[in-house]
Amino acid sequence: MAQITHFFAGANSGNGFQNLFSEMVDLEDTYDFMILKGGPGVGKNTFMREIGKTMERAGTPVEYLWCSGDPDSLDGVVMPEIRCAVADGTSPHVLEPKYPAAVDRYVDLGRFYDLAAAKASAGEVKARTHQYQSAYVRAYRCLRAARQLELETAEAAQRSFEAQRAERRVSGVIRRELRKSAGKPGRTCRRFLGSITHKGYIWRFDSVETMCPRVYEFADRWGLAGQSLERLHQAAQDKGWDTIVCVSPEDPARIEHVLIPELGLAFVTSRPDMDYGQKPYRRIRLDAMVDPANRARMRFQGRMTGLLRQEAVEALRDAKTAHDALEAIYNPYVDFDGVRAQAALEAGRLLSYLG
Fold this sequence. Notes:
Elements: E1 4-8, E2 10-13, E3 16-19, E4 32-37, H1 44-57, E5 62-66, E6 74-79, E7 84-88, E8 104-108, H2 115-120, H3 122-160, H4 163-177, E9 188-191, E10 194-197, E11 200-203, H5 205-211, E12 214-219, H6 226-238, E13 243-247, E14 255-260, E15 265-270, E16 282-285, H7 295-330, H8 336-352
Parallel strand pairs: 1-5, 4-7, 4-8, 9-13, 12-15, 12-16
Antiparallel strand pairs: 2-3, 5-6, 6-7, 10-11, 13-14, 14-15
Helix pairs in contact: 1-8, 3-7, 4-6
């Protein structure tokens, strides 16, 4: 059975929408990248699901990239073995071809709208659009306040953190697990493992389990694992191992998880709102390396952070409701048979690449 994995290419944060769409594929090593254009309700998710199902049935690995606005909808599908992908290239993650037709190309689904009918609904379309945009503003305001409080907590934890003790543990892991060389340059792919959504936090630890049977869990309530994970990632790169680096939605410069599928090895961060939830191969308790005298205050700040994020979830629910209403306006004016026929045409093209 082909390997099926799940990640996110975008995430909600205190700095607004975080975007890894430009890193979805390496255009220097991609054969065909379809960039979908077309507005709400036009069938982009339908198109991508059809592509994914077809390629699964053909037995080739498929990576699904889910939407942080609606984690039941797709933002992209990557088929690494045939070096192909398809993605939603519309706002807030606009994509444009770099090597038009030669590598990446538009697929215009907007042509399946009934233009006259859509224009007759312009007033309602504008009202619903303003509603969901306003809800996102509220959500990001709450997430920004939560992040500021979280950073204060992390600074307090860092002041009493036994960094040298953690360093010794990580050095031992590197000696045991990364002593062999892959004999090639190591490549890094960046993804989000999840995001805060209108359903709360969603993390795709199932992808970790699919690719990496041996998992080291960093118990890290206070955001202390970044430096350790950076060291592990660098050591894997230096040895030539390909890695999937899952970065923090709040700070994409900070690593939260490192997956090394060639070794079946992963290093994950686990905390109350991002619980790994499985029995790890080894657990490293960074929480225990913080002075207990500071913990009561930090727990209080953690509860306040959680309340602010819950307010953000409520706003994201309002955004989802408004966006669903917007799509419902468009749906009667979309030729979904045409969308499916276009998906079948493109799926057939992809199947021809399997050789």
